[in-house]
Amino acid sequence: RKSGTVAMKMNIITSIAVTIAIAAISAALYISHSDQSEKIATLSRQLSEVLERDDFDAPLSTLSARRAQELPSAFTYASDFGVVGDSMANDGPAIQAALDSAGMDETGGTVILPQGVFITTQPIIIPPGVTLQGQGYGSSPLAIKFDSGGSTIAYCGMDHAVKINGSSSGLRDLAVYDWPYNHGDFDGGCPDIKAAGGVLIQAEGTTVESTFLQNVFIYFFVGGQALTLSAINQGGVAYSNIQNVRLRHAMTGLKLEADETSFVNTNTFVGGAISGGDFHYGLHATGPGDCNDNKFYGLGIGMYDSEVAHVYVTGSTTNVKMENIRFEAKDKDMSRPIVIIDDSSYGNVINGILGHTHIKADMNRNPGIDTMSQKSVGLDPAPLNQFWNAAFKGWDGPNRIMPGWSLQHSQAELMVFEPDLYPDHNVISIDYLNYGGAFKLMSDQTLKVEGHDFVTFGVYAKSSVPGSISAAMRYTSGSIISSAPHSGNGEWEFIGMSALYSKTAPYFYFSITGDVQLTAPTLTFGQTPATPGASLMSSSGARMSGTFTLGGAIGYPPSEDSSPYFWVLPKNEGNVFMMDMLGDPVRHIHRLNQSGADRFPKGTVITLVFEESGTRVKHSAYIKLKNNQDFVSVTQSSLTLVTKGSATWYEVSRNN
Questions:
Q1: Residues 527, 529, 532, 538, CA torsion sign
Q2: Which of 313, 292, 301, 291 is nearest to 352 (CA)?
Q3: The whole model's pTM is what?
Q4: Which tens digit of pLDDT belongs to each residue from 339-355?
């Protein structure tokens, strides 16, 4: 290696000399004539200093510290520490000695493992900042073939074969094998021992970042986990990068776990595969600590079967992001899911090819699960704006009433202007008047959809007052949470949030503490991006081609235990009611849906259709008829009414 080092130094110095010479010639061509001689002389002196150096043949140890630092760092060769690699000798201590040397900066930070099968009865511990690099893992990605110059760490013990406990360290181009054979010093032992796992990346009481595995084959850990990322005792594992790692034949292929004080998140897995047999889990992600935002791209999970699931995710702060994944389980019974997302977990993202069986998950809590097959499909919420009158139409200035909205603490002044950002969506301007507290703008209806656990809502706001408005809601735990406020930059900003909401007491509002303009509020159920400007027909009007069909229902007389004159029509079942008199058409109607719970929204138009004659609708303070005249039905007659949202109805038209 000495001759190689000298040659390397010669090449570096010669390259420097040639570069300076070329620079001198170029300078001579382009430097102005007035100072050409002086600059060429300077470059010539620099070239002479390089060419006159007399230490080309000196050993590295005699070079100055400055020159030594300019040269590339050397590798650490495990063979210099006595590794054999014949599948007979115990190479664990020698490998560890090489790694420790690299970890103490005594030699280079990359330890080169030669070709061979390296038996070890002790876990191999990779120090921080150190890489253990082999010569590949042979010609087969399905089994250890001990050919093609491969490097195999063959573990015979009950712990993990390799442990990574520090940042910026990892493995590259080798195999890790739970050794099942009788060889050399280990006759009669290894076949009866099952390791706890293959590679363990663990953070205990500290944060372990930027670890990596690349082109690694982890094989036959049928008594434990092939690869584990674990954090305990206020530890954290983050920013690991795992590329082209094959996990074959294990109880668990990949385990991600964090105790209640720790986190495992923002780790990235690219390519690779989990395959073979003996699996309980392919991927198992679990809390109770934060175990989320771990990303997988292009991974193949194709075991024949799994006792529990190919992917199993559990924990309220646990989720996975899996893009372009291939799932296969040709021996799994069709009644058993290939993926199980526990009901406590939400925000999972899974897409790709689902070859067998199905996914078991609450799709409303996990709308990012988009796999579609003959066995199961994902579920996306309908992006319909649930805010009625999102266009801020119908402002009643004198009475300070905006249909569909409640303005609590109404000391502030409110004005309505023409649309700005979105057509047909008015702008409301709120003058806070230094009220001194927050007042709320919210829907005048309780918004709730049992089928959805998430809500997304917000509003466009313009303000020059920092923090003038934020969105707020009651979280699933019962506490009130809020969005980021307006920055106060005087421009339109969308102020909104998306979270799990309380179904027992849903509560959504905009908290206003300064002068602000608002437009295009939106609320959709499900974890979907906000859709400002997209409204229900009742919010901003609509044009239609084709037939507009109204719902129809039946109106029955009051029950015997209530007043015969106070009728209740079925709410939210239609606008046209066929009045069924149960064989006795001679009846009187004095009130309709007078109870607050039974009232129809403001602006609702209904039509009462009578097939028989003799029914009288009485003009009163609750049913105001044209010219104060009662309506008396004849055969096939009708009466159309409209409400202002109170117990009082007004006649629109009659046909009798």
A1: negative
A2: 301
A3: 0.70
A4: 999 999 989 999 999 88
